[in-house]
Design brief:
The complex is a heterodimer. Chain A is of the alpha/beta class. In chain A, about 35% of the residues lie in helices and about 25% in strands. Chain A has a domain of about 160 residues: P-loop containing nucleotide triphosphate hydrolases (Rossmann fold, 3-Layer(aba) Sandwich), CATH 3.40.50. Chain A contains eight helices and ten strands. In chain A, the strands form two sheets. A six-stranded mixed β-sheet of chain A has the order 6-7-8-3-9-10. In chain A, α3 runs parallel beside α5. The radius of gyration of chain A is 18 Å and the shape is globular. Chain B has one domain. Chain B is built from nine helices and no strands. Chain B is elongated, with a radius of gyration of 22 Å. Classes of the chains: A alpha/beta, B mainly alpha. Chains A and B meet through α2, β6 and α3 of A and α4 and α5 of B.
Chain lengths: ~250, ~260
């Protein structure tokens, strides 16, 4: 469904991605893990066309989006939803209006139908009574759930999650993971999750890809990654200060 | 030493030219998108309300006191030449051709332009603009085009209000306070003021509306580096708009 072929990306003299090859299968939950600054978020931004690679191809259902712009790129983006790290909720709108926004802007649904769909979606994410609140009045977990509801409302076939549990306590973090799993089962989307939350994120991942030094170091099922003999992966999973990577 | 100095100078000049190119491209695309359906009339109305209605009080106060000062100063200056009968035309011409459009534009820059730059800047640093792109909505069409159209519509209307209020401010001081005849004040104004003077004021206010919305949107849209970036963008938007209003005022005065 998504395929990255020899993707390179640099910012000035800093080479962030240097030859990423990755395949995301339809319907799976692929989790990308790696150190801070390893290019995970850049990878998500490349997949959805918010940035362009310096070299390489990014195929979405066979279409190379690096060659697209304007409305042709928008048509590909209509298949996507994205949950940004900070939620990216429109702070001048209520929770209800944030979730309704894509429907009002991209569909011809009648207001009553929009209201019904949004209310149902808010109930799905446990925010049925919170529609009148503004983002500034919400807790971190509520913001993430609102952002998830907004990402799901147009029923996209692919959803990208940029560190969906960052800044949340472990209980809320687990609740968000559970919500992702439940909505994934209900809506059958393909998910790409960028996360630091190890090993918690392994509970919901179909496959895991490890990014290190601008490349995909390893990919496989969570069990395969946990058992990997690679010293970097072992150090990263255990969070040990001893190993090939010097933390500071 | 010399080489690094030249490199620094070169990169500054290139950055400056690239910035101007980005600004021009933003304006052209925003104007083109404004005429492509679907038309965002609700957002346009919201921006007109924000720039126009919510600036009205401060604009009326500016107009009133400017007119009163013009009436007072004009009266004492004209009295030296025995020409107090010309107070009405002096107040009206000063306001309509020059002071009205400039002061109104500077006030709107401070009140609405800064807020516009800050709002778009915060949307940029909190990924809200990227969220629009992800939803396959063009951020330039959604955010910038309505702001630029609102600037073009609002500034001439606000300037007209400043002019009318200012003329009545001058009337209050000149006629009611200092004793110039009411018929003289308005009669001379009517005979000396021409449609051409009003057209000059209109073109100036239209240009200033474009300058404010264009520069403030540009600065907000290309904000970087967090809260400090937003504060810097807002300051730059106000300073740059104000300077360009004054430069453009001189250029238009000399051309028109």
């Amino acid at each position: 469904m998504i395929r990255l072929i020899d993707v390179h990306r640099s910012f000035g003299s800093q080479q962030v991605l240097s030859g990423v090859n990755l395949r995301v299968q339809k319907g799976e939950i692929l989790t990308i893990i790696g150190r801070s600054g390893s290019g995970k978020t850049v990878l998500l931004r490349l997949i959805i066309g918010l940035a362009r690679p310096n070299r390489g191809q990014i195929l979405i259902e066979g279409t190379d989006i690096t060659q697209l712009s304007g409305r042709r790129l928008d048509r590909v983006r209509e298949r996507f939803g994205m949950l940004f790290q900070g939620g990216a909720l429109f702070d001048s709108m209520t929770v209800f209006d944030n979730v309704a926004f894509p429907l009002r802007e991209k569909t011809d649904l009648a207001p009553a139908e929009v209201t019904a769909q949004v209310q149902k979606m808010l109930e799905n994410v446990g925010l049925g009574e919170m529609g009148y609140k503004f983002p500034a009045e919400l807790s971190g977990g509520m913001k993430k759930r609102t952002a998830l509801a907004r990402a799901l409302i147009t029923n996209p076939s692919i959803i990208l999650f940029d560190e969906p549990t960052t800044g949340l306590d472990p209980i809320l973090g687990r609740a968000i993971h559970q919500l992702i799993q439940e909505t994934h089962e209900a809506f059958e989307y393909t998910a790409v999750i960028v996360s630091h939350e190890i090993p918690e994120v392994f509970d919901i991942a179909t496959r895991v890809a490890v990014i290190h030094e601008g490349r995909i170091l390893a990919e496989g099922t969570p069990e395969m990654i946990v058992k990997s003999p690679d010293p970097f992966i072992q150090q990263f999973i255990s969070g040990s200060l001893e190993g090939p990577v010097r933390p500071l | 030493m010399m080489r690094s100095l030249l490199e620094g100078l070169g990169s500054t000049v290139i950055g400056w030219i690239a910035g101007m190119g980005r600004m021009l491209i933003l304006l052209i695309t925003a104007l083109l998108w404004a005429f492509v359906p679907p038309f965002r009339l609700r957002r346009l109305a919201r921006q007109i309300h924000f720039m126009g209605w919510r600036s009205l009080l401060v604009v009326v106060l500016t107009g009133a006191f400017t007119g009163m000062v013009l009436g007072l100063q004009g009266y004492y200056t004209l009295r030296k030449f025995g020409a107090t009968a010309m107070l009405g035309p002096a107040v009206a011409l000063s306001l309509i051709r020059e002071i009205g459009p400039v002061l109104c534009a500077l006030v709107v820059t401070g009140r609405a332009g800064s807020a516009m730059a800050a709002e778009i800047g915060i949307m940029r640093i909190s990924d809200q603009i990227d969220a629009l792109s992800v939803m396959a909505l063009n951020p330039v069409k959604y955010l910038i085009s309505p702001n630029i159209l609102a600037g073009l519509i609002t500034l001439p209307l606000l300037t007209a209000i400043v002019n009318v209020v200012g003329i009545y401010g001058g009337y209050l001081v000149g006629v009611q306070l200092l004793g110039v005849g009411q018929g003289v004040y308005f009669g001379e104004m009517q005979s000396i003021l021409s449609m051409y003077d009003i057209k000059i004021g209109f073109w100036k206010s239209l240009s200033f509306g474009l300058i404010i919305s264009w520069i403030c949107c540009y600065k907000g849209f290309y904000t970087r580096f967090g809260a400090e970036g937003v504060s810097q963008a807002t300051t730059e938007a106000v300073v740059m708009s104000s300077v360009w209003i004054l430069i453009c005022d001189y250029l238009l005065t000399s051309v028109l």
